[in-house]
Write a structure and sequence with these properties.
alpha+beta, Rossmann fold, D-amino Acid Aminotransferase, Chain A, domain 1, globular, binds adenosine-5'-triphosphate, binds magnesium ion, nucleotide-binding, ATP-grasp, Probable alpha-L-glutamate ligase
Length: 291
């Protein structure tokens, strides 16, 4: 098969692994930088142009679209959908997953456990916002943050008020969330492919850090999910419409709480922690559907 990986950087671990595993399985693997594609749209003839050439006879697409290029990247994925090419991540699901607030609303409708969250339109009444999540300590998150940047823990009511007032003053959109203390600076990442958890890890923040992101110095180890955690992860990926998903959860006294569902989850952390060939699972998923 001729498979396209949409990736702005061919040197990323995830991109390299997908190329390596796809080639090993006898496929022609092409890395296409979606930010450098041109889309030609006319009656019944959608075309993607890359480096001056039309991309033809593509059997499947694996999108690896970074958060900073969601808009254009999604348009490229959608164009492939118009060309009736199978994509491992649907354009609609990609857009959905990039909106933290919309994602939480969708997860909540599916009755999945979530940290209680408040979103207001720069409310001046920060005190009542704080009350709604049960007071401090609480977590404040910039809506467009990634890799743990823009996630702040406010220990007490005074700091929560001043941080909220500062963000509101800057017209920065934030959500306010109850702090899940029992998680003890750790979270779970379940890697879901086509309705199956193909790997799971527990990430622990470094000493004194409540954020478990590997980019913030956290460490990861393989973990066996409970049935409850596994079911929550599968349901979260399903309601988000994602064939490939990284579902992040906190372990709390009231069961697993979904933090977010990533649509371009990295392969490096999960393959290192679990020793599993996750790239192969993604290639097999595309094989099953591209035929
Ligand atoms: N409500 C919460 N209670 C306790 N810990 C939290 C809470 N929210 C987030 N954390 C911790 O902070 C980390 C970062 O938060 P989150 O995943 O929401 O943002 P992000 O990492 O910036 O987003 P992304 O994963 O898209 O880069 C989480 O992995 C978790 O360890
Ligand atoms: Mg995260
Ligand atoms: Mg995310």
């Amino acid at each position: 098969m001729k498979l396209v990986i949409l990736s702005a950087n061919p040197n990323l671990y995830s991109t390299k692994r997908l190329v390596e595993v796809g080639e090993k399985k006898g496929h022609e693997m092409m890395v296409v930088d979606h930010t450098k594609c041109d889309l030609v749209i006319e009656k019944k003839k959608p075309i993607v142009i890359y480096k001056g050439k039309e991309l033809t006879d593509i059997d499947g697409v694996i999108p690896r679209i970074g958060a900073s290029v969601t808009f254009f990247g999604t348009a490229v994925v959608r164009q492939f959908e118009m060309m009736k090419v199978f994509t491992a991540t649907e354009s609609q699901a990609l857009v959905r997953s990039r909106d933290k607030l919309r994602s939480l609303q969708i997860l909540s409708r599916a009755s999945l456990g979530l940290p209680k969250t408040v979103f207001s339109n720069y409310s001046k009444d920060v005190s009542s916002v704080i009350d709604k999540v049960g007071g401090a300590p609480l977590v404040i998150k910039l809506l467009e943050g990634t890799q743990g940047l823009g996630v702040v823990l406010a220990d007490n009511r005074n700091s929560a008020e001043s941080i909220l007032e500062a963000f509101n003053g800057l017209q920065a959109r934030v959500i306010v969330q109850e702090f899940i203390k029992e998680a003890k600076g750790a979270d779970l990442r379940a890697f879901v492919v086509d309705g199956v958890v193909v790997g799971a890890m527990k990430r622990q923040g470094k000493e004194g850090e409540f954020r478990s992101n590997l980019h913030r110095g956290g460490s990861a180890e393989i973990i066996e999910l409970t049935d409850e955690e596994e079911n929550a992860a599968l349901k979260a990926a399903r309601v988000m419409g994602l064939g490939v998903a990284g579902v992040d959860m906190l372990q709390s006294a009231r069961g697993p709480l979904i933090l977010e569902v990533n649509s371009s989850p990295g392969l490096e952390g999960i393959e290192r922690a679990t020793g599993k060939n996750i790239a192969l699972q993604i290639i097999k998923y595309v094989e099953r559907n591209a035929e």
